[in-house]
Structures are given as structure tokens and as C-alpha cells.
Amino acid sequence: MPILYVVFLWWFSTGAIIYLDGLPRRTYRWSMLGASVLAGIALYTLALTAQQQTLYGAYVAFTGAIILWGWVEMSFLMGVITGSRRSRCPEGARGWGRFLYAVQAILYHEFALIIAALAIALVTWGGVNKVGLYTFLILWVMRTSTKLNVFLGVRNLNEEWLPEHLRYLESYFRKKPMNLLFPISVTASTIVAVWIVQMAMDPMAATHQVAGATFLAVLMVLAILEHWFLVLPLPSQALWNWALRSRQPEEAHFRPIYPTTKAANDPDKRSPTPGLTVSSSRLRY
Prior knowledge:
The protein is mostly helical and 285 residues long.
């Protein structure tokens, strides 16, 4: 059950954010308002379950962390919290200069992640239930790895997921078969995933401990899978085609346009209009 729950929540929450981000910008304020209410509730439930060593507490803490992560992601994709630089990477920028430009483009977003992580750590401080905190940290570390790999160069950039107001971020991406960081990222994360799986399989662990470790292990596996999606020739976007439908242009409705002035050779015209005419007196039989 925990495995299916994590997979569904990962798939559905990602699609929901993509769908809402694809709606007209006038809807963003309402989307962010609803997400902010959910984030506040999530933070409150994380505080309530910090001392709960139960299966229920593990589920609630994991879900709360996912909701808070979703709020930060929405604020970025909707252009609310991005960075100090909102323009394309300057032509010819290379090396550390290009890296600094890229950091400026997402700087405030990274600050928001730090604040969210500190908020979770604060409300769960001294508690025994750390599932929420560890969930958020895994998401943060693995997303940072993804950003670095996209910056250095990967096969699949998934730039079609970017809304129009963030299209300038494409200039900070690099398209390559692979980069030197990728194998390091995948290897290190796989080692961590195996370690967490071993914790989940501990026969001496309590039910809530098994559930919490399973949540984290499955989340790590999904994050590793997302890394492989960056380099393998697989249509990973097909998983969320339903969410991308909100970005399709509205169907155009056409109506015929009738000319207000009839053509010179129109036999139905009722009044003389400028055009080519032939006087009857000029005709010879």
C-alpha cells in the first residue's frame, strides 16, 4: 500500500501542477491561494504528527511534505518566486559566468526552498516523526541534482513543460547525450536508495517505521527514474499528457466576413461603384 500511495501521489501531484500552470495567467492567483491554504494546513499537520509514532502519522507527514514541495514548485512555475534575473542568458556566456547567470535566474526559488525546509525542521523539532523532513530533503537534493544535470547538458530537457513566461530559462539549458555529473548523481542516489530499502526491510522495525522508510525509498527510486528520463530516448512526458492539455490553444471559431462593397462585376449590385465599366455608346454591332 505505501508503494502505490507514493507512486500515485508523485504522478498526480506532478500532473496537477503542470495542469494548473498551463491555465491562463489570470487563474494563477486563485491557484496560488488554494495552494497556500493547503500548505498552511500541511505545515500544521506536520507539527501535530511530529510526536506520533503511528502509521497514520507517517502517511500524514509524507503527504504534508509533498504539499509544501508542491507550493514551492507552483510559485516558481507561475512566476511568483523565481530569481533576480528574468531574461535569457547573455550570448557568449561560458563557464562560471554562465553558472552565475543561471543561479540568478532561480535564486529566490532556492531561498524559498531553504525557508520551507527550515519551517518543516522547526515544527518537527524534537519530534520522533521525521518522515516529513526527510521527504522534503530528498526532493530538494534530487531536484538540485536534476537542475545541475540540465545545466551541464542532457538529452531530454522537457522544455515543453515551461510556460511562456519562463521560456527564457531554456537559454540556460544545454542539450548533450550526457555529462560527467550524471553517472555520479545516479550512482550516489542509488546507494542511498538501497540503504533506505534495507531499513524498510528490517524485520525488527515497527509498522510505522517500515511505512516511513518505504515512502522514502520509493521516492528515491522515482527520483532516480526521473534522472534516467533525462538521458534515455523515452517519451516520459506521455505520463502527463493529460496535464499538458491545459496548454493547448483554444479552438478558433470562424465566421464568414462579407465585403461591405460589392465587386465591380457583381450583377446583384444596386448602386454604381467605382470599377471598370463600358459605355453602351461605344459598342459597335
